[in-house]
Amino acid sequence: MKKYIFLLLLLYFFSCQNSSRQEDSPLFELIPAAHSGIDFNNFIIENQTVNYFTFMQIYSGAGVAVGDINNDGLQDVYFSANFGQNKLYLNKGNLVFEDITEKSGTGLNEGYHTGVNMVDINGDGWLDIYVCRSGWYKEDFIKRNQLLINNGDLTFTESATDYGLDDPRNSVQSSFFDYDKDGDLDMFLVNTTTDFSFTQVIKPTEVFHSEEGYKALNSNDILYRNNGDGTFANVSQAAGILPDIGFGWSVLTVDFNDDGWTDIFIGNDFITPDYLYINQGDGTFREQSKEYFKHTSFYSMGSDAADFNNDGLTDLLVMDMMPPDYKRHKTTMGMMSIPAFKKSVAVGNNYQYMHNVLQLNNGGNQARQADVVPFSEVGQLAGIWETDWSWSAQISDFDNDGYRDIYITNGLKKYVTDLDFITRIEAKFSSDYYPERIKEYIAELPSGESPNFMYRNNGGPALTFTDVSKAWGMDINSFSNGCAIADLDNDGDLDIVVNNSDAPAFLYENKATKSDNNYLRINLAGSNTTNAKVYLKDDKGKTLQFQEAITARGYLSCSESTLHFGTGSLVEIPVVEVVWPDGKVSHMEKVKTNQVLAIDSVTAVENTAIPQPYTALFQNKTNAISPAYLHRENEFDDFTTQALLPHRESTNGPALAVGDANGDGSDDYFVGGATGQAGALYLQNPDGSFSKSNQAIFENDSQYEDIAALFFDADGDGDQDLYVVSGGIEYGAESKNYEDRLYLNGEGAFTASDALPAIQASGGSVATNDFDGDGDLDLFIGGRVLADQYPFPPQSFLLKNNGKKFEDATPKSLRYIGMVTDATWADLDGDKDADLIVVGEWMQIEVFKNNKGSLERATHDWGLDHTGGWWNSIAAHDLDGDGDLDFVIGNLGLNNKFHAAEEWPLKVHAADFDQNGSIEIVLAEAIDGEYFPIAGRDCLFLQSVGLKKKYLTYEAFADDPVSEIYGAENIKNALTYEAHLFESVMLINEGNHFTIKHLPVQAQAFPVKGIVVEDLNGDGLADLILGGNNHGTEVGTTRADAGIGLVLLSDQAGNFEPLTVQQSGFFAPDNVVRIHRIGLIGGKLGVLVANNDSRLNLFAKQKL
Fold first, then answer.
1. Is residue 1006 part of a domain?
2. Sign of the four-CA dihedral 172, 174, 179, 180
3. Are 1044 and 1061 in contact, with CB atoms under 8 Å apart?
4. Phi, psi for 743 (deg, rounded to 5)
5. Comparing C-alpha atoms, which of 451, 478, 471, 573 is closest to residue 522?
6. Which candidate, 77, 192, 1090, places its Cα nearest to that of 679?
C-alpha cells in the first residue's frame, strides 16, 4: 500500500486544525476555435495502470509558450500535452492560427510533457523550444527533456542530447538566464519526484538536501552553465544549488534584491520549503528564503514576479489551493496539525500556510539598517489569497491603466482533497484494495471545475485588488493550468491563451484598446536581453513603472518577450531607461505612447549616474545598549485548554517604560521579562550609551510575566517610581503570580512597596493621572485576559492614591469593561480634568468622562458605538492642530483572514456548550445573512467531542450555521462579542464627538502594537511612527509578520505619506509588541522597540 500512502497526507498535516473604459461590455472575449483555428485539447487518459492513485500528478496539466518563431512580428503558440501530441500554431493575423505541428516536426508524441519554454538558445536570431517531460515511466529515454532547434524555415530539429540538456529526471519547467554575466544564456531546471510517500514525512532540512535522498528520488533541481560552444554542463554543486528532494512546480529567475545579479526562486509543493537562491556575483548562489520571506505558501504551485505597486521593486506572487467558497473550504481543508506544524518549523523549514502569497518587496539591496530587509506578505490585505486550486499566476496590466492586474488559472479535474472521499477511500484501502475497481474509486471523486480569477489593481498606493472575473468575462468553469500572455493581434493590449485539461484551450481577446487608456510596448534587441530592466520615469527621475525582461512565468509556461506597459492617460513618457544585464544603460526622452518601441543594446553607454546620497530619519543605535537585552519567551502551550483560541495570550510582553530613574535629567528605561526572566533597568550615560543597572528586586520577582510598566511618582517624593503589570495565562484564572508590583525609587535603588491592594488578575496596561484632582497620581489598570476563559473579561481597576496606599475605586461600568490592551487619560471636552479612553480585544473604543472625580461611561455620547475591534494601542495628540486632543489607535489591520463590518460584524460566542466544565469558543463570520463557524469540523471536535455523533461527514457540517451546530438558544445565551472594524484609525475630536479616519493602507498591513507621535521633519505637523506584528497566531491562521516598522509623514490636508524603510531608517521587523519615545543625550529623539522573544532595539533620529 506504499503507493497509496499519500492519501494520509492531509489527515496527517491537516488532520485537525483607473480605466475610463465603459463597463457595459466585458474586457475579454473568448474566441471560438472555429475562428482561431486553435483546437488543442490536453486530454487526460486514466486506466487501471495510470491514474491518480498511481501517478498523483495526472491532473496537474501542462503548459503553453508564446513567441514569434518566424520573425514576422506575430506571436505564435505552442501547447504542451500530457498525453499525445504537442501542437504548434502559426499566427496568421487577426487571431487566426494555422496548425503546423506536422510539417514543423514539433509534435513530440511520446512521453508525458509538462513545462515548455521558448528561447533563442544558440543566438542565431530564431526562437527554439525546450520541452520538459515527466511521468510514471521506469525507462529514462521516454522522460528525457527535448530541445527543438529552429531551422529558420518553420521546421525544427530535436537536439537536446547534442546540447547536453536531455535531462532524464521528472522535469517540470526551465528558465534561461545569464547567471554569470558571460554573455550567454544558462538554464535552471526544476525537477520533481513521483514518489509521493515522501510527502508524508517531516524531516530536517539537511535531509531534504542530502545526496542520498535526491539520488534515491532523482528529483534534484539543476543549474546548467552554457559552455559557449553549443553545450551545457551541470554545475549545480559548484554553484551552491543544494541537493533537494523537492516537489517543484515553478521557477523564476529574477533579480529579487536589486543588486544587478539574477536570482532564482523555486515554488515547491507539499512540505518541501520554497527556495530562494541569491546570486553572490561570483558564480555561486546562497539559499536565503527564510531571510527574505517571513512565511511562504504551503502547496506552492505557479508563480510570477513583477512590480505590482509601481515602486520600482520586484514583488512575488505564488499560488496555492485555499478555496474562497465556504462549503468547499470546509469539505476539503482540514485543520493544521499543531504538532506537525511545530515540528516542521523546528527542523528548519519556514512557516508555511495554505494560501496564495503576495510578497511585497521592501527594497533589500538599498537597506541601511540590515543586510536583508525581508519582504512583507500582503496577500490577504490585497484580497487575492484564496482562489481555490490555482495553477498559473500572471501579473500584467490588462486594462492599460498603468497598474498591473492579476490573472489566475484554476480548477482540478477531480477534487482529490475532498475529506469525505478521503475518509471513504482510506477505509477501503485499509481493508482491501482491488485494482479492477479503480474506475469506481475515481468516479467517487467530486469535480474540481471552477472559474479562473481576474483581479484589477486598484491603483495608487492601495496595495489591493478587486475581483473582476465576471465583469471582464472570465467566469467560465474550467480545468485550467498553464497560460501565456501576449498581444496576439498587435492591437496594443494583452491577450491570454490557456491550456485546459480535458477541454479545448482558451483564447481570450483583450479589448482594452477600445478604452481611453494608452500603452507602450518595448522590444529589446541585442546579444543578451534577458533580465534587462526597463524603467518609465517622470521628468524628475521618479520611477513611474518598472519591468524586468523575463518570459518563463506562471505555471509550466512562457509568455511573450515584448515588455508591455499600460500608461493610462499618459500620451508621452518623459524618460525611458533600460539597464542591460552588463550594467550599461540606454536612455530615451519624450517617448510617445501607443507604439512598439525597439531599443537595441548597441545604444547603451556606461552608467555614470551617481546614486544620490541621503540620510535616513533614524539610525539604529541598538549597539549603544550594554549588555544587549534579549527577551526570552517561556515555552507554554496556550491551546491546551482552549484549542480554538485565535492567538496566544501568553506572549504579550515584554513591558516597556521610560523615565528618569536615577534623577540625572536623562531618560532611562525598564524592559520586562517573560515568566522566569527578570526585567531590567537601563540607565542612560552622558555619552548616549545605556548600561544595565543591577536591581536585586527584579531578580527576586522573575516568576512574574511583565506585560506593561510605567514610571511615575507614586509617593510624591519627587522621583520616578515603577509600576509593573503582571500578566499571561500560565497560572490559571487567579494566582499570586498575576499580582502587580509597585517599586519605590530610593535614589536609583528600587524596593518593593505594599501600597497596592491584592489584585490577582492578568493585566494588560497601566495609565496614570490625578483623576480626582487631589494632587497625587492615581492609576488605571486594564485587565487583559482570564486564563482558560477567553474571551470572558477580567477585572480592571481604578486605583485612587490616598498618599499612603492605593485604594480600589473602580466604578461598576469599568470593572469588567473587556480584554483591555491599552488606555490613556486625556481631557476630551476641555473642562480641565482628564477623561479615560480604553481599548482592547473584542472591545469598542470606550470613553469614560471625568465628572469631578467620578468616571461615567460616555462611549455612546462620543459616537463610538459599533467600534468593536481587536485594538492594541492608543496615543493622544492634537493631530489636526485645532487645540484639542485626537487619538491614533492601533488595531489588528486588514492583512488577515478575518472580516469585520458594521452591518455584519465578526462574532465570538463563548460558553460551556457541552457542560463539561470548560469554556468553548466559536468565532463566526456572516455568509449570506447567516453566521457560520470559522473553524472546521475537526477543529470543533477538539473542544466539543459530542459533535462527532452529530456530524459524521464534512458535507453535513458545512451546511449548518452556528445556531444549528450548537443550538440557537445556546448561542443566544452565550457570551457574545462583535468586531466591526479592524482598520487602525485616527479619532478626530470634533468637540463633542469623534470622526473616524482610517490610517493609510500601509498601516493596515500589520497589527499596530506601538505608536509614537512626533513632528519628525520640523513642519509643525504630527507624524507617526508605528510598529507591530503578532507571531502568536494559532497554526491555522497566518502569522501577522508583515510589519517592518513604518513612518508616516503628514501634510496640511491631513493625509500621510509612508516612507520606505530606506528613507525612514526605522527597521523593526520582529515580533514588535511596544514602541516608546525616549529622550537621548543632546536633545535627540529616540525610539525604543520592545520585541517578544527577541532583542530590544533603539533608534535615534538624525539631523536632516
1. yes
2. positive
3. yes
4. -110, 120
5. 573
6. 1090
Together in a domain, 509 and 546: no
102: CATH: 2.130.10.10
The average confidence (pLDDT) of the chain is 92
Neighbour tally for 941: CB within 10 Å: 18
pLDDT in tens, 451-470: 999 999 999 888 999 999 99
Q: Are residues 490 and 362 in the same domain?
A: yes
Residue 811 C-alpha cell reads as 466604578
Number of domains in the chain: 4
Dihedral of CA atoms 206, 552, 186, 70 in degrees, nearest 10, equals 160
- Residues 829-866: tens digit of each pLDDT: 999 999 999 999 999 999 999 999 999 999 999 999 99
| DSSP bridge pairs for 684 | 690
CA distances from 242 to 190, 287, 346, 567 (A): 12, 8, 20, 42
Instruction: Answer yes or no: is pLDDT of 429 > 80.
Output: no
Is the preceding peptide bond at 791 cis, omega within 30 degrees of 0? yes
Domain housing 1069: 618-900+980-1101
Is 995 inside any structural domain?
Answer: yes
Is residue 609 assigned to a domain? no
Mean pLDDT for 529-548 is: 96
In terms of Cα–Cα distance, which of 103, 98, 191, 85 is closest to 144?
191
3-state class percentages of the chain: helix first, strand second, coil last, to nearest 5: 15, 35, 50
Domain end call among 516, 540, 561: 516
For residues 199 and 188, state if they share a domain. yes
Q: Are residues 596 and 687 in the same domain?
A: no
State pLDDT tens for residues 947-996.
999 999 999 999 999 999 999 999 999 999 999 999 999 999 999 999 99
Mapped onto helix, strand or coil, the DSSP state of residue 295 is: strand
Number of H helices, E strands in the chain: 21, 75
Is 371 in the same domain as 315?
yes
CA count, 13 A, side-chain hemisphere, 1010: 34
SS (H, E, C) 386-444: CCCCEEEEEEECCCCCCCCEEEEEECECCCCCCHHHHHHHHHHHHHCCCHHHHHHHHHH
